Amino acid sequence: MVEAVLIDLLSLPTNLQNNIQGLLCNTLETIEKYSSNENAPFVYVMCCQRQGGERKGEQEFFLPALGGFQSLKRRLEVVHALTTAAALYTIKQRLDEKDLSIIKVILPSLRKDLMKVYIDHLFTAVYQFQYEDLQVASDSENLQIPEPQGEGQTLPSQDMALIQSEIQMHLESLPSLKGELTILRSSLIPDDTFLHGFTTRAGGISYIPTLSSCNLFSSSKRRDPHIVVKENLRRLAKAAGFSPEAFHRVKVDHANAVCIVGKTEPDSYDGIVTNQKGVTLAAPGADCIPVLFADPVKKACGAAHSGWKGTLLGVSMATVNAMVSEYGCNVKDILVVLGPSVGPCCYKLPHESAKEFHRIDPKCVRLFDSANPYIDIRRATRILLERGGVLPENIQDDSVTDQNQNITFCTACHPDKFYSHFRDGTNFGTQIGFISIRD
């Protein structure tokens, strides 16, 4: 069954303005008719807040139409906004607060193509939408689970661009959540040559608790859309001083492939390297290690995403080897910094997987004889790097070298600072490590 109904009155044709109360009343009657008190959907009426107009006056205008709907009155809200983007984003927040996903949109037929574009930008595949023309519904089937949406959009590209611009302007106007944007930096990487850092969860606009606030990864399985993550990235780029247009994030596969910037990009890869100035490389982490690499002699850099699978497959050393083979780096000049990741205090794996870490070094595993031993993927990463020729003093892992843990915090232990898949479940947020060569 439909969990929420959105009634779009934001931009009705002129000839319907005088009938707006009647239209709304008829629509609400139909919804109430096919809803019981137990399963009545939440109803959001989206209407225009005229510039300079009093919101109270507009609310009073709708009161005659909203009165008398006993099963809906506690589940009905009028959302006033200057733009469709602002209204929809407010409604999305309400839906997410209640964990609602099946939404029916009742709107003028001429708005349908426009609305689909807004929804495609502001929502993900977690949500299901169906559309109905703004008129009196005649049967209960109109409130059933929707059929899959049709393919493609019919709007001109200019209109699509205007919609995207409107959404971006609204998102840019929103205040940052959970404090100011914070970037952790390593003292090992020379600041005069490289721009780098590791993000925390503060300073973005993502509002869902497990994603709040500077989530930097969007997935069809999560509720944060790409355009929100793009705004978080824009704010990070402004604070850090890099260009979001020259930003390359690894395409995670939990393996050991490495992308060379400027060459054919693989379909997926967990390491990336460059010697081009002004190109920012990034690796995500939400328990997995974001690893940064810098060679101040040859002026090359890299980033890698190292989860437990990538660690066993040697993704960090594969990234080092790519820097050596592509840019003539000397392995002894390469600096490596391990960013925030789940620590051996919290991280467990099944015994069969733990055996692989035990083979690297028994100290990588705690309670080895248990069904789910604790694993130290950081120690395993350091050992494999040192075996590959990276100097121990050129590897920064603050969980070992600095009791204050300036960089390498345990993500699971610090919910105020970091996202954690291990701790938060499937709808988790993501931080990144990033690096570039200064112009």
UniProtKB/TrEMBL annotation:
InterPro entries: Cu_polyphenol_OxRdtase, Cu_polyphenol_OxRdtase_sf, Cytotoxic_necrot_fac-like_cat. The gene is Lacc1. One of its GO terms (biological process) is inflammatory response. Its EC number is 2.4.2.1, 2.4.2.28, 3.5.4.4. CDD domains: YfiH (cd16833). Keywords: Acetylation, Cytoplasm, Endoplasmic reticulum, Hydrolase, Immunity, Inflammatory response, Innate immunity, Metal-binding, Nucleus, Peroxisome, Phosphoprotein, Transferase, Zinc. It catalyses: guanosine + phosphate = alpha-D-ribose 1-phosphate + guanine; adenosine + phosphate = alpha-D-ribose 1-phosphate + adenine; adenosine + H2O + H(+) = inosine + NH4(+); S-methyl-5'-thioadenosine + phosphate = 5-(methylsulfanyl)-alpha-D-ribose 1-phosphate + adenine. The keyword Cytoplasm applies. It holds the Pfam family Cu-oxidase_4. It comes from the Eukaryota. One of its GO terms (molecular function) is S-methyl-5-thioadenosine phosphorylase activity. This is Purine nucleoside phosphorylase LACC1. The keyword Acetylation applies. Signal peptide: none annotated. Interacts with FASN. Interacts with SDHA. Interacts with ATF6, EIF2AK3 and ERN1. Belongs to the purine nucleoside phosphorylase YfiH/LACC1 family. It comes from Pachyramphus minor. It is found in: Cytoplasm; Endoplasmic reticulum; Nucleus; Peroxisome. GO terms for cellular component: endoplasmic reticulum; nucleus; peroxisome.
